[in-house]
């Protein structure tokens, strides 16, 4: 038997049902016995929503009023009545089992499952399997319109059935027409209909993901704005009703291995992904979550892994994963098991522990632990911030994707930028300095589309473009050298900055609104150099903290030359500065400044690229030039080209109190310029690497 089901919410109707997160207010259903084509009693039930305010479309289409809904039963009571009445109708027809049938998938996937999940009560098993009448209709009538273009009215018109909706109450006509359509389909003797129902997964399945897997880009989304403590199960609950692929939730981490509020989610097919996109700005608790399209390549970068150790650790399926952080470096497996105690036994004992290590084998202080059930995991989480040795230990829920990301990706020693960039033409810019001081003559743009470029920002600014200072657009990049969604713009005066903030705040750029705030040059510099700007004030970048600033750091702020990040990382021949000698210091040649196209200034996250030059573009185009042009420009400015064997060397693990004297002593026997300690060390290309921590210095 089928139970034909129709519903409506207090908000959008039709193709947008459930997209506005409004509650269910109406359920109408009727039982149809397929073998005999008999039908049961038609039932209509109003549902009392927590918010009785109805949208204009809902009032117009349904004719319902808040007063009428106020007298109805809440959703949990209505669903109980639904089960009881369906069972009674089945007994009359001599049947005992049934499957739901709805017009499309929105009512089941986008309304019932999300709403019951938020209200913390369980749906009965019948709501985890249903038939999509539109798909069944297209199977029976292949010449009809595409599934996405179907609705109850178009299917009725195709069969020549009556389509006057005014003859019946809202919801009653829809169910009666759906029943008539089903009876007509049964008369066609089509063997392929009502054989393979749609299914909704009961729970999210964890599992590893290999980098060799092929991930369809049409199945992946990016969720942004997640609470930092949210787990993969929390994200699966946000997308309740949609089928996420096994191991399809990958929490994104920042350079320090902490969650950054984003996740990539992979669904079983593109249809589920498209439904997920309709949950853009739905809420998880009190926070709204932004949902955007992503690619399979992005998912594999976060979730993919090939380590045998990780694969073996994650081979035990349906386990709860807990992450431990802050372990003493000397902690052993026995220490961790003793810390957790007998009340939370680890799956497989020592085999259920995975310590995270640096490439050289040193412990990082992180570990992952497997538990066989939720009870044991909850007991472990109660030990959050308890003491092991002399350190307190943090415990968090984790995911298989996070295990792979932390173990395989976080401590990789390969460069983030694997290839050398194309040489660029050196040009002499007008005098330019980054603004400082407390005058609020700058604006901060937050929430830019990741694809936004300089032209998009200038178009967004409109008439205010003329009030931007020369070279006054600064785009901020994340740890991977990609746009972070933030940018700073220097205006000609504080009044101009105020007007722009008032005029452009929450103005749309492409498909996103952009927040615009007035700020000072000092605040801008703090963020550009790696600090954070939040409600509690300014958090300085690592270079401003005690004992972390190398002696030569000031040279990057006072030097006239502006060098792209690629030059700082790899030092192509034409971009290397000359080594100074005592005889040459009296007359310094004019500096050569390198600018990206459109004079855009981009800044790398300080903790990922240290020390960072004032301008570090990596994603904008450059003006390509043949080697001859570069050499000619360098010669014209009296900048000699250094010989081939030049390399940038990373020093990792330095004591924080290390000074220049200790570093020079360490490199005793190698050639360097004694005047300014800029020299060359003969190393292979493998020594070239991105600097990733404040305690790592550079020796040229």
UniProtKB/TrEMBL annotation:
Protein's recorded name: Epithelial splicing regulatory protein 2
Gene Ontology biological process: mRNA processing; RNA splicing
Location of this chain's protein in the cell: Nucleus
Keyword Nucleus in record: yes
Gene name of this polypeptide: Esrp2
Cited SUPFAM superfamilies: Ribonuclease H-like (SSF53098), RNA-binding domain, RBD (SSF54928)
Keyword annotations of the record: mRNA processing, mRNA splicing, Nucleus, Repeat, RNA-binding
GO cellular component, one term: nucleus
UniProt key word Flavoprotein: no
Domain RRM: 219-296, 320-400
InterPro entries in UniProt: ESRP, Nucleotide-bd_a/b_plait_sf, RBD_domain_sf, RNaseH-like_sf, RNaseH_sf, RRM_dom
Molecular function GO labels: RNA binding
Top-level taxonomic group: Eukaryota
Family: Belongs to the ESRP family.
Ranges in coiled-coil conformation: none
Principal location listed in the UniProt entry: nucleus
